[in-house]
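Example record used in the benchmark description.
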Amino acid sequence: QLQLVESGGGLVQPGGSLRLSCAASGFTLDSYTLGWFRQVPGKEREGVSCISSSGSGSVTNYADSVKGRFTISRVNAKNTAYLEMISLKPEDTAVYYCAATKRPLRTTTIQALCDSGDDFGSWGQGIQVTVSS
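Model output (structure tokens):
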């Protein structure tokens, strides 16, 4: 059974940093495209960042709102993905989800996958990130 579990969220002051983790079980994360998404109540889900499988070159994508501040990575030996977040802003406050898809990049682009999120079939339970003074 595919399972994703997020951790590392919490309350941080503006300008601070957090690192979110996404531990996978039941499958090899390296073979999937992995994405981080966030959602605020009453707003649409936003694709924050995605990284393709190693076989597809570990291509990354970032939303314009987080470029230069967030970094997605994956440690295959731990079957875990990360989202390093620096210079956090109050508008980064949201529930963050990690998700995985097997859809191959030859049929789409990493940006299209990440912008939509609809092809991601496995999702974590979500974790709250609050940026506030």
